[in-house]
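Model the whole thing, not chain by chain.
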Amino acid sequence: MAKVPVQFTLNGSEKAEFIESGTTLLHALRDKIGDTSPKGGCHQGTCGACSVIIDGELRLSCLTLAETCNGADIKTTAGLAEGGVLHPLQRAFLDAFATQCGFCTPGMIMAAKVLLDRTPNPSRDDVVEALSGNICRCTGYEPIIQAVLVAARANSQNAA
Amino acid sequence: MSLALQTFSTVKDANAALQAAGTRYLGGGTLVVRAANEGDVSTSSLVRVTDPGLSQIAVAGGNVGLGASVTMAAIASHPELAALAPAACAVGGPAIRNMATVGGNLFAPAPYGDFAVALLALGATVVNEDGETPIETFLANRDTSRAIVTTVGFALPGAESFRFLKVSRVKPKGVSVLSIAALLELAADGTVVSARIALGCMADRPIRATAAEKALLGCKLTPREIAPALAAAGEGIAPITDPIASAWYRTEVLPVHLGRLLSN
């Protein structure tokens, strides 16, 4: 299989790789670049564990071919913490016991980040809708929803 | 996975490449990449088009033109397409809606393709290099279609005349038990003058409920007057059976949900 060049920004750093044509972004991130924060769950677009943010939009890296991301700005959960300080969403997930096995957590956090970037003070229904494409088999969702609401409140307090 | 992706700037060039055996069109990826991930080895090559015209939404003179690459998220957030937002929002979660396209939805097998159900009720026209095709004809022949869809056109419905309902077991976003779209024109006294009703999951692709449409004509949308239409809704259907629901269950609940859609 011919290899093709792919170049994009990942969490603020330029990345350039040669990958096999047809490689998913999920595989490119995990196996070529070493960012294992997006998880490969269902590979069918159902579980949301592989969710990343591409050019500001939530997308599923398991259904996105890496070649289509040339020039894109990609953000993963691995890039959220700054200077060793967790992002408010990451901190809230820990504090609210919103993670058990942790497999769904990176996808949940990326979905929540897109929500909070656009709607800083979401309602509970907003959070439920934003997380509706992400499946968790451990927590029962309520702690996750509460964590996102806590992070939103923390953000609004910081802004005030 | 062993796939080769070919990128073209024009639909014409992509159409030519698409004629090769084992080649499929890549839109948002929610169908073809998923199939490849599941082990479908019938596809060895993917073709995509970067023409920005395919992602345009045109609303003018009461008519809508949706480029085939327009996503469900773009429709849901378009201020002039509020009537279609419920149908667009019925497709997957937020990430899927950022990827799933109008063109792809036309090819989505049941229980997917909720937006195509809406397009069928709207009497849309599907445009590709072969020209314009009524959506019913297009859907009937979609398995053998080899031309890239470029646009879908239809008359913009009023908020009062277009209704959409998706029934799923998991809230807020689950796979369809069934979906129903209805385009109703009512006289001043509330009598149904014209009706187009489309059903999802009642066959392997969206279908019209023609018997129910006929039975609705001249009726007012009261429980008593719509009863014959609900009784006729099951004519000509062959619901799918999948892990979400059996064909029997889908048949049983169809008139219930159609009644709710018409009565609201």
